[in-house]
Write a structure and sequence with these properties.
Mean pLDDT: 73
Structural class: alpha+beta
Strand content: 25-35%
Number of domains: 1
Number of helices: 3
Largest sheet: 11 strands, antiparallel
C-alpha cells in the first residue's frame, strides 16, 4: 500500500540521517584511496574521466565519458578492459596457480597472449610475430629488423619493450627468474597497466616527452648463430600457437 511504502521510505531516510550523524560513509561513494587510484590511472590529479568503485563486490572500474565501462579490476586480481566499441582490449584471468593474459587490437586481432606458465607471443597489427617465448623451446624477438633468439636456460636478462600501436604497449619484465608480461592500455583518456599476475586497481605509469606510454627501454641486440635457426623458430611458433 502507499502508506506502507511511505513508512519504508521514511525508515530509509531515518537510517541515512542516523548514519550521517555517526559519521559512517555512504556505501555508494568511493573511498579516498579509490579516488586516488582513479586520479592516478587517469594521468594525475586532473582527471576528466568519470570513474567509480563498485561497493557491492569490491570491483574497481574506470569508465569512458559516455558512461560505458573501460577498465575493471576484480578482487581476485583478474582484470579486463574494453574498447569504446565494446570489444575486448585486455583480459587477465586466473589460470592454474597464476593468470592468463590476452590483449587484442581494435580490429579483434590478437596482440598479446600469455599463459600462466610464461609461454606467449606478441604480434604487431598485421599479425607478424615480434616476440615469442616457450618454456621448453626458448624464444625469439625481432627488434629493428634484428632477430635475437635464446634457449630455455638463457631467458632474456633485460626488458623487452614494444609499442604495438597508439593504444597498446607490451613490456616483458624479468623478476626472480620469471617472465612478467605487461600491457599498457590507452584509449580515449583512460590509462591502465595490466600484468599477467594479480592486478592492482588504478595501476598506471608516468608520462614524459616520449609520449603517452612514457620512456621505452629497448633490449640489447644479440648476434645469433644461424645454424638450425629456421627449424628452432618453427618449433617455437608451433609450441606457442596453442595459447592463441
Amino acid at each position: 500500500s502507499s502508506a506502507g511504502s511511505s513508512r519504508r521510505l521514511l525508515s530509509r531516510e531515518e537510517r541515512d540521517r542516523r548514519s550521517r550523524e555517526r559519521g559512517s560513509p555512504s556505501p555508494t561513494i568511493a573511498s579516498t584511496s579509490a579516488r586516488d587510484a582513479v586520479s592516478m590511472a587517469a594521468g594525475g590529479g586532473q582527471s576528466t574521466v568519470p570513474a567509480e568503485q563498485s561497493s557491492s563486490n569490491g570491483d574497481f572500474t574506470l569508465k569512458y565519458r559516455n558512461g560505458s565501462t573501460a577498465v575493471t579490476v576484480r578482487s581476485d586480481g583478474s582484470a579486463s578492459s574494453r574498447w569504446l566499441t565494446g570489444g575486448v582490449a585486455v583480459s587477465v584471468d586466473p589460470e592454474d596457480e597464476g593468470y592468463r593474459l590476452l590483449a587484442c587490437f581494435q580490429n579483434g586481432n590478437v596482440a598479446v597472449s600469455f599463459d600462466s606458465a610464461g609461454n606467449g607471443v606478441v604480434n604487431d597489427p598485421s599479425g607478424q610475430s615480434l616476440f615469442s617465448h616457450n618454456c621448453q623451446c626458448g624464444g625469439f624477438s625481432k627488434i629493428d629488423d634484428s632477430l635475437s633468439t635464446w634457449e630455455t636456460s638463457t631467458m632474456p636478462d633485460n626488458e623487452m619493450d614494444f609499442v604495438l600501436d597508439k593504444s597498446l604497449r607490451f613490456r616483458l619484465k624479468k623478476e626472480r627468474n620469471r617472465l612478467i608480461p605487461e600491457v599498457f592500455f590507452v584509449c580515449e583518456g583512460v590509462r591502465h597497466l595490466f600484468k599477467c599476475a594479480a592486478n592492482v586497481p588504478g595501476a598506471c605509469w608516468e608520462e614524459d616527452e616520449s609520449g603517452s606510454f612514457g620512456k621505452l627501454k629497448k633490449p640489447k641486440k644479440k648476434q645469433d648463430d644461424n645454424k638450425g635457426l629456421s627449424e628452432r623458430l618453427s618449433d617455437i611458433r608451433n609450441a606457442t600457437a596453442s595459447i592463441i
